[in-house]
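Appendix B.2, paired examples.
Example (i):
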Amino acid sequence: MKTSVSGKTILFPLLLAATTFLLSACSSDYVISTQDGHMLTTSGKPVKDKETGLLSYKDSDGNMHQLRQQDVKEIVEK
């Protein structure tokens, strides 16, 4: 009995691994410096809500938070 490994069975796991690596490389952490001196580390890029003017971000534990834009001094990519 002869067993052969097709190119498709090898190619799929390689493509899956490459896609996972590329997607994980896209999400960067940021540090938000507030006016009162706090340093907040985010998981991913903070997003400004155009309607409310609040800055939304996810912390390292995955919890969502919001800050007023005027309370933010600086946002730096880590």
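Example (ii):
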Amino acid sequence: MATKGLATALTLYGARTLTLPQAAAQAGLSEAEFVDQLERRGIEVTDSERAAALGGEQTALSD
């Protein structure tokens, strides 16, 4: 079941056991989709990982 894979990936990413690309693959999602799932659940994503996952679409607001 995909939901179990997602839940496991979210848990492992949150514990920093898996990297974002590894966790996204575990969940069967693209990195951008996985970032969206993390943010929906309030799991912190670093700016560098977010930028890499989104292909630089978002720019840092802390300039």
